Amino acid sequence: MSKKSECLAWLIRRHGIEMTHLSGGSHIGSVLSAADIIAVLYADIMRYKSEDPEWDGRDRFIMSKGHAGAAVYAALAECGFFDTAELKTHYADGSRLSGHVSHHLPGVEFSTGSLGHGLSVAAGMALAAKQDGKLHRVFAVLGDGECDEGSVWEAALFANHYRLENLTAIVDHNHMQSLDTCEKTLELEDLGAKWRAFGWNVIELDGHDHDALQTALRDTHNSAHKPTAVIANTVKGKGVSFMENDVLWHYRFPHDGWEYDCAVSELYAVKPDSVKDPYTPNGIAKPARPEPGADIGIDHTTSAGWHPTYIRKFF
């Protein structure tokens, strides 16, 4: 029998494909990479009451990489914060489900989208909880490309200075951002060493391993009272083979035809027995396949065929 978190992760991926397909919205690659992290948080780790979203004892969650908001919307709907039928309104005019995370939905603490701000807000929440003697925890999921932002490191310094052991940052380290790999955009490694240098307790793991995530996130309190950074190594587009490690799917959505059919069919093939596909309950009988010359298996990074070196200095 599949774990509750594994079932939720599958549903997040399936909802994500449907939502971006219907809306023509972006960021399915990021949704798929973060699905296991979000699922473990909502299924196993965080305290909340879906019937009372403002319950004072709830743990606080900030999706700092707000462009992957469809993953959060799917988790909230499946956990009872609102009806799953509303997911079909993603990105529609007048919908509460805006392209980036919106606080107009129950269960969302803070609207995000402008990268680099989420950790600062989470650190403020953690400090307030500590000063008020409250026991709830604060979690923030960041993108690795988001760690290019200076405000992330200001918040990191702040959190260490105030010994916010009730704060956990989880970096969805899928190694890609926007138009290229992280390393070819702005060198990032050694990412764990950077967080350690800023005074954080650091855990590095496979971000698709539910057991590892559960173990790491269950209790991050430590004798040094340090905040914890979990570097979750993930695969962009995880779960759909032609989307995996292809930066094209940062902005592209699954179109009608083979893109949608193949994505759904691949997910359906690994569907947990206890889960019902809410959109294609029997799968797709005759899925379309990529036609000759289809845009698949191609390096879509902006540096394809061009490998940057150190800039020449002219005197």
What's the quick description here?
The chain is built from nine helices and seven strands. It has 315 residues and is an alpha/beta fold. The protein has a five-stranded parallel β-sheet with strand order 1-2-3-7-6, with helices on both faces. Strands 4-5 form a two-stranded antiparallel ribbon.
Give a structural overview.
With 315 residues, the chain is α/β, with parallel strands linked by helices. The chain is built from nine helices and seven strands. Strands 1-2-3-7-6 form a five-stranded parallel sheet, sandwiched between helices.
List the helices and strands and how they pair.
Elements: H1 4-23, H2 28-45, E1 60-63, H3 69-78, H4 118-131, E2 138-143, H5 150-161, E3 167-173, E4 176-177, E5 180-181, H6 182-185, H7 191-197, E6 201-206, H8 210-218, E7 228-233, H9 258-269
Parallel strand pairs: 1-2, 2-3, 3-7, 6-7
Antiparallel strand pairs: 4-5
List its salient traits:
five-stranded parallel β-sheet; globular; two-stranded antiparallel ribbon; alpha/beta; 315 residues
The biggest sheet, with number of strands, parallel, antiparallel or mixed sense and barrel status, is: 5 strands, parallel
In quaternary terms, these chains amount to single chain
> What are the secondary-structure elements, in order, as H or E?
HHEHHEHEEEHHEHEH
Q: Give me the Rg, rounded.
A: 19 Å
Strand content: 5-15%
Which secondary-structure class do the elements indicate?
alpha/beta
Shape: globular
The number of E-state strands comes to: 7
Nearest-integer average pLDDT: 95
- Helix share bin: 25-40%
Q: What is the straight-line distance between the termini?
A: 67 Å
In the predicted model, the low-confidence regions spanning at least 5 consecutive residues are 308-315
State the helix count.
9
Strand order of the largest sheet: 1-2-3-7-6
